[in-house]
Amino acid sequence: MGFLSDRDTEYLKNLFAERLAHPVTVRLFTRESKLVLPGVRQCPTCRDARLILEELAGLSDQIQLEVHDVLAEADLARQYDIFDVPAIVLEGKNAGRVRFFGLPAGYEFATLVEDLLDVSRGEGDLSAETRRQLRAIRAPVVIRVLVTPT
Amino acid sequence: MAARLAHRLAVESAQVTADVIEVQEFPELIERYRVRGVPKVVINERVQFEGALPEAQFIRQVVLAIDGQTQPTDGEDADA
Protein backbone atom coordinates (compact mmCIF):
# COMPACT_ATOMS: atom_id res chain seq x y z
CA MET A 1 0.00 0.00 0.00
CA GLY A 2 1.11 3.54 -0.40
CA PHE A 3 -0.03 5.23 -3.60
CA LEU A 4 -3.22 6.62 -2.10
CA SER A 5 -3.50 8.96 0.85
CA ASP A 6 -5.76 7.89 3.75
CA ARG A 7 -8.24 10.49 2.62
CA ASP A 8 -8.32 9.21 -0.98
CA THR A 9 -8.63 5.65 0.29
CA GLU A 10 -11.69 6.57 2.36
CA TYR A 11 -13.21 8.53 -0.50
CA LEU A 12 -12.74 5.68 -2.99
CA LYS A 13 -14.01 3.02 -0.56
CA ASN A 14 -17.22 5.00 -0.10
CA LEU A 15 -17.54 5.74 -3.81
CA PHE A 16 -17.16 2.07 -4.75
CA ALA A 17 -19.50 0.93 -1.97
CA GLU A 18 -22.19 3.27 -3.29
CA ARG A 19 -21.69 2.99 -7.03
CA LEU A 20 -20.14 -0.37 -7.95
CA ALA A 21 -23.40 -2.23 -8.39
CA HIS A 22 -21.90 -5.16 -10.30
CA PRO A 23 -18.48 -6.81 -10.25
CA VAL A 24 -15.65 -5.64 -12.50
CA THR A 25 -12.66 -7.73 -13.50
CA VAL A 26 -9.47 -5.73 -13.99
CA ARG A 27 -6.97 -7.64 -16.10
CA LEU A 28 -3.39 -6.42 -15.93
CA PHE A 29 -1.11 -7.69 -18.67
CA THR A 30 2.44 -7.30 -17.43
CA ARG A 31 6.02 -8.45 -17.77
CA GLU A 32 7.97 -8.20 -14.56
CA SER A 33 10.76 -10.67 -15.21
CA LYS A 34 14.18 -9.41 -14.15
CA LEU A 35 15.72 -11.61 -16.82
CA VAL A 36 17.10 -9.71 -19.74
CA LEU A 37 15.91 -11.62 -22.78
CA PRO A 38 16.99 -10.86 -26.32
CA GLY A 39 14.29 -8.95 -28.18
CA VAL A 40 12.18 -8.45 -25.06
CA ARG A 41 12.01 -4.88 -23.82
CA GLN A 42 12.05 -4.14 -20.11
CA CYS A 43 8.86 -2.77 -18.61
CA PRO A 44 9.82 -0.01 -16.17
CA THR A 45 6.23 0.77 -15.14
CA CYS A 46 4.82 -2.77 -14.86
CA ARG A 47 5.54 -3.13 -11.15
CA ASP A 48 3.95 0.21 -10.25
CA ALA A 49 0.93 -0.64 -12.40
CA ARG A 50 0.45 -3.86 -10.41
CA LEU A 51 0.89 -2.10 -7.06
CA ILE A 52 -1.62 0.63 -7.95
CA LEU A 53 -4.19 -1.90 -9.13
CA GLU A 54 -3.66 -4.13 -6.07
CA GLU A 55 -4.33 -1.13 -3.87
CA LEU A 56 -7.41 -0.19 -5.89
CA ALA A 57 -8.80 -3.73 -5.89
CA GLY A 58 -8.33 -3.84 -2.13
CA LEU A 59 -10.92 -1.08 -1.75
CA SER A 60 -13.92 -3.07 -2.98
CA ASP A 61 -15.04 -6.69 -3.13
CA GLN A 62 -16.58 -5.82 -6.49
CA ILE A 63 -13.15 -5.31 -8.08
CA GLN A 64 -11.38 -8.51 -9.04
CA LEU A 65 -7.77 -8.13 -10.17
CA GLU A 66 -6.26 -10.72 -12.51
CA VAL A 67 -2.56 -10.37 -13.29
CA HIS A 68 -1.30 -11.99 -16.49
CA ASP A 69 2.33 -12.26 -17.48
CA VAL A 70 2.47 -11.84 -21.26
CA LEU A 71 5.35 -14.28 -21.61
CA ALA A 72 3.73 -17.00 -19.49
CA GLU A 73 0.25 -16.39 -20.94
CA ALA A 74 1.08 -15.44 -24.50
CA ASP A 75 -2.10 -16.99 -25.92
CA LEU A 76 -4.31 -14.93 -23.64
CA ALA A 77 -2.36 -11.78 -24.48
CA ARG A 78 -2.90 -12.48 -28.18
CA GLN A 79 -6.57 -13.16 -27.60
CA TYR A 80 -6.87 -9.75 -25.93
CA ASP A 81 -4.81 -8.15 -28.69
CA ILE A 82 -2.26 -6.77 -26.22
CA PHE A 83 0.44 -4.96 -28.20
CA ASP A 84 2.53 -3.74 -25.27
CA VAL A 85 2.73 -3.67 -21.48
CA PRO A 86 1.55 -2.68 -19.00
CA ALA A 87 -1.96 -3.06 -20.39
CA ILE A 88 -5.18 -2.93 -18.40
CA VAL A 89 -8.51 -4.32 -19.61
CA LEU A 90 -11.75 -3.64 -17.73
CA GLU A 91 -14.52 -6.24 -17.92
CA GLY A 92 -17.98 -5.89 -16.44
CA LYS A 93 -21.25 -5.00 -18.12
CA ASN A 94 -19.48 -3.07 -20.88
CA ALA A 95 -20.29 -3.99 -24.47
CA GLY A 96 -16.98 -2.98 -26.10
CA ARG A 97 -13.37 -3.05 -25.01
CA VAL A 98 -12.08 -0.57 -22.44
CA ARG A 99 -8.29 -0.60 -22.20
CA PHE A 100 -5.29 1.33 -20.94
CA PHE A 101 -1.69 1.04 -22.08
CA GLY A 102 0.90 2.46 -19.70
CA LEU A 103 0.73 3.40 -16.05
CA PRO A 104 -2.67 4.80 -15.02
CA ALA A 105 -1.24 7.59 -12.88
CA GLY A 106 -2.19 11.25 -12.50
CA TYR A 107 -5.14 12.20 -14.70
CA GLU A 108 -5.47 8.64 -15.99
CA PHE A 109 -6.01 7.34 -12.47
CA ALA A 110 -9.13 9.51 -12.27
CA THR A 111 -10.16 8.18 -15.69
CA LEU A 112 -9.69 4.61 -14.43
CA VAL A 113 -11.83 5.21 -11.33
CA GLU A 114 -14.68 6.71 -13.36
CA ASP A 115 -14.37 3.95 -15.96
CA LEU A 116 -14.80 1.32 -13.23
CA LEU A 117 -18.16 2.86 -12.30
CA ASP A 118 -19.33 2.91 -15.94
CA VAL A 119 -18.11 -0.61 -16.69
CA SER A 120 -19.83 -1.88 -13.55
CA ARG A 121 -23.22 -0.58 -14.63
CA GLY A 122 -22.69 -0.88 -18.39
CA GLU A 123 -23.58 2.74 -19.10
CA GLY A 124 -21.51 5.75 -20.06
CA ASP A 125 -23.85 8.75 -19.61
CA LEU A 126 -24.10 9.44 -23.32
CA SER A 127 -26.67 11.67 -24.99
CA ALA A 128 -29.64 10.11 -26.78
CA GLU A 129 -28.25 11.31 -30.11
CA THR A 130 -24.82 9.78 -29.47
CA ARG A 131 -26.50 6.49 -28.54
CA ARG A 132 -28.51 6.58 -31.74
CA GLN A 133 -25.35 7.02 -33.82
CA LEU A 134 -23.53 4.32 -31.83
CA ARG A 135 -26.32 1.83 -32.47
CA ALA A 136 -26.01 2.49 -36.21
CA ILE A 137 -22.35 1.46 -36.22
CA ARG A 138 -21.97 -1.91 -37.91
CA ALA A 139 -18.20 -2.13 -38.30
CA PRO A 140 -15.44 -2.40 -35.71
CA VAL A 141 -13.94 0.88 -34.52
CA VAL A 142 -10.63 1.29 -32.74
CA ILE A 143 -10.25 4.61 -30.95
CA ARG A 144 -6.80 5.41 -29.64
CA VAL A 145 -6.43 8.33 -27.27
CA LEU A 146 -2.80 9.30 -26.82
CA VAL A 147 -2.10 11.10 -23.57
CA THR A 148 0.84 12.12 -21.42
CA PRO A 149 1.11 12.08 -17.62
CA THR A 150 -0.14 15.27 -15.97
CA MET B 1 -12.12 14.73 -21.74
CA ALA B 2 -11.13 12.59 -24.72
CA ALA B 3 -9.96 9.55 -22.73
CA ARG B 4 -13.18 9.27 -20.77
CA LEU B 5 -15.37 9.91 -23.78
CA ALA B 6 -13.67 7.18 -25.82
CA HIS B 7 -14.11 4.73 -22.96
CA ARG B 8 -17.75 5.73 -22.44
CA LEU B 9 -18.43 4.94 -26.11
CA ALA B 10 -16.74 1.54 -25.68
CA VAL B 11 -18.81 0.79 -22.59
CA GLU B 12 -21.99 1.12 -24.66
CA SER B 13 -21.03 -0.30 -28.08
CA ALA B 14 -19.75 -3.78 -28.82
CA GLN B 15 -18.16 -2.42 -31.99
CA VAL B 16 -15.85 -0.06 -30.11
CA THR B 17 -12.40 -0.75 -28.73
CA ALA B 18 -11.05 2.29 -26.90
CA ASP B 19 -7.40 2.43 -25.90
CA VAL B 20 -6.06 5.16 -23.66
CA ILE B 21 -2.32 5.16 -24.20
CA GLU B 22 0.27 6.86 -22.03
CA VAL B 23 2.37 7.64 -25.03
CA GLN B 24 5.63 8.61 -23.30
CA GLU B 25 6.01 4.95 -22.38
CA PHE B 26 5.71 3.92 -26.02
CA PRO B 27 7.91 6.35 -27.97
CA GLU B 28 7.43 4.48 -31.24
CA LEU B 29 3.76 5.50 -31.15
CA ILE B 30 4.73 9.19 -30.88
CA GLU B 31 6.51 8.79 -34.19
CA ARG B 32 3.93 6.53 -35.79
CA TYR B 33 1.05 8.91 -35.06
CA ARG B 34 3.15 12.09 -35.35
CA VAL B 35 2.04 13.28 -31.95
CA ARG B 36 2.69 16.98 -31.39
CA GLY B 37 0.00 17.77 -28.86
CA VAL B 38 -2.12 15.72 -26.50
CA PRO B 39 -4.66 14.40 -26.23
CA LYS B 40 -4.39 13.10 -29.75
CA VAL B 41 -7.18 10.88 -30.98
CA VAL B 42 -6.72 8.35 -33.79
CA ILE B 43 -9.77 6.46 -35.07
CA ASN B 44 -9.29 3.33 -37.18
CA GLU B 45 -5.83 4.63 -38.12
CA ARG B 46 -7.55 7.06 -40.49
CA VAL B 47 -9.17 9.99 -38.77
CA GLN B 48 -6.97 11.98 -36.43
CA PHE B 49 -7.43 15.09 -34.36
CA GLU B 50 -5.76 16.85 -31.48
CA GLY B 51 -7.49 18.39 -28.51
CA ALA B 52 -10.80 17.68 -26.86
CA LEU B 53 -13.97 17.67 -28.94
CA PRO B 54 -17.49 17.88 -27.53
CA GLU B 55 -19.38 14.57 -27.54
CA ALA B 56 -21.49 15.38 -30.63
CA GLN B 57 -18.41 16.20 -32.72
CA PHE B 58 -16.45 13.27 -31.37
CA ILE B 59 -19.07 10.69 -32.38
CA ARG B 60 -19.27 12.41 -35.76
CA GLN B 61 -15.54 11.77 -36.25
CA VAL B 62 -16.11 8.11 -35.34
CA VAL B 63 -18.85 7.81 -37.97
CA LEU B 64 -16.64 9.59 -40.54
CA ALA B 65 -13.82 7.14 -39.86
CA ILE B 66 -16.13 4.22 -40.61
CA ASP B 67 -17.62 5.81 -43.69
CA GLY B 68 -14.12 6.38 -45.02
CA GLN B 69 -14.81 10.03 -45.64
CA THR B 70 -11.54 11.02 -44.09
CA GLN B 71 -11.76 14.65 -43.13
CA PRO B 72 -8.98 15.20 -40.62
CA THR B 73 -9.94 18.02 -38.33
CA ASP B 74 -8.19 19.74 -35.49
CA GLY B 75 -9.99 20.13 -32.20
CA GLU B 76 -10.62 23.75 -31.34
CA ASP B 77 -11.06 23.23 -27.62
CA ALA B 78 -7.75 22.51 -25.97
CA ASP B 79 -9.21 22.17 -22.48
CA ALA B 80 -8.44 18.48 -22.27
Let me know the average pLDDT of chain A: 94
Strand line-up across the major sheet of chain A? 2-1-3-4
Biggest sheet of chain B, open or closed, and with what strands and sense? 2 strands, antiparallel
Tally the structural domains of chain A: 1
Structural domains of chain B: how many: 1
Q: What class do helices, strands and sheet pairing of chain A give?
A: alpha+beta
Strand proportion of chain A, as a percent range, falls in 15-25%
Written as H for each helix and E for each strand, in order along the chain, the element string of chain A is HEHEHEEHHE
The largest sheet of chain A, given as strand count, sense and whether it forms a barrel, is: 4 strands, mixed
The CATH first-level class of chain B comes to Alpha Beta
How many DSSP H or I helices of chain A? 5
- According to CATH, the homologous superfamily of chain B is Glutaredoxin
- Taking the alpha carbons of the first and last residues of chain B, their distance comes to 5 Å
Order of helices and strands of chain B: HEHEEH
**Multimerization status:** heterodimer
Give your account of this protein's structure.
The complex is a heterodimer of chains A (150) and B (80). Chain A is α+β, with helices and mostly antiparallel strands. Chain A has a single domain (6-135), classed as Glutaredoxin. Helices cover 37% and strands 21% of the residues of chain A. Chain A has helices at residues 6-19, 46-57, 74-79, 107-121, 128-135; strands at residues 24-30, 63-69, 87-91, 97-101, 141-147. In chain A, strands 2-1-3-4 form a four-stranded mixed sheet. In chain A, helix 2 (46-57) links the parallel strand 1 (24-30) and strand 2 (63-69). Chain A starts with 5 loop residues before the first helix and ends with a strand. Chain B is an alpha+beta fold. Chain B has a single domain (2-67), classed as Glutaredoxin. Chain B has helices at 2-12, 27-32, 55-67; strands spanning 16-22, 40-43, 47-50. In chain B, strands 2-3 form a two-stranded antiparallel ribbon. In chain B, a hairpin with a 3-residue loop joins strand 2 and strand 3 (47-50). The chains are: A alpha+beta (150), B alpha+beta (80). At the A-B interface, strand 4, helix 4, helix 5 and strand 5 of A face helix 1, strand 1, strand 2 and helix 3 of B.
